[in-house]
Amino acid sequence: MSLATYEEAIAFLQKNKITYKERQHEAVLTVNDAANLKDFNFPVIKNLFLKKKKSEQFFLCLLVGQKKVNFKTLAPQLQISRSKLTFATEEELTNILGVKPGYVTPLALTHDTNKQVTVVLDYDLKNVHSIGIHPNTNVATVFVKYSDLLKIIEATQHKILEINSI
After folding, report:
1. In this predicted model, what pLDDT tens digit does every residue of 34-66 receive, in sequence order?
2. With helix as H, strand as E and coil as C, how does the chain read?
């Protein structure tokens, strides 16, 4: 599978009439990297690519960055046991979303043509004025409203699960 590109992410946003603002910056691989960017005044959003062990069921979890993921709380909400919830491998991430670690984004959902991924949204994202996501590169961020994030996911025809506690 080919890797997801910046150009296809921007083209997707434009094609689907998603309003966004873009900001270029130094490379960001982790939530801590994002939090340390200079002159950025926005909440950091964490993107995690998880899976149910020994299955082809994957979850793209988006949550407000300062939150910690509690697998004991999250797993039952995904209707799986805690012992079956794990992080997807780098190979799975690349094969399904077409991105590498540090580039995880809902804009890569266009690469999941088999619709294996359920998007899990932290309920607190609704309170974030501007949600920053990678446009398939970690040297830029596009900012969208929550309603536009939902449009992105709906345009890729992926299932959305909103949960109160992660």
Report:
1. 666 666 666 778 899 999 999 999 999 999 877
2. CCCCCHHHHHHHHHHCCCCCEEEECCCCCCHHHHHCCCCCCCCCEEEEEEEECCCCCEEEEEEECCCCCCHHHHHHHCCCCHHHEEECCHHHHHHHHCCCCCCCCHHHHHHCCCCCEEEEEEHHHHHCCCEEECCCCCCEEEEECHHHHHHHHHHCCCEEEEECCC
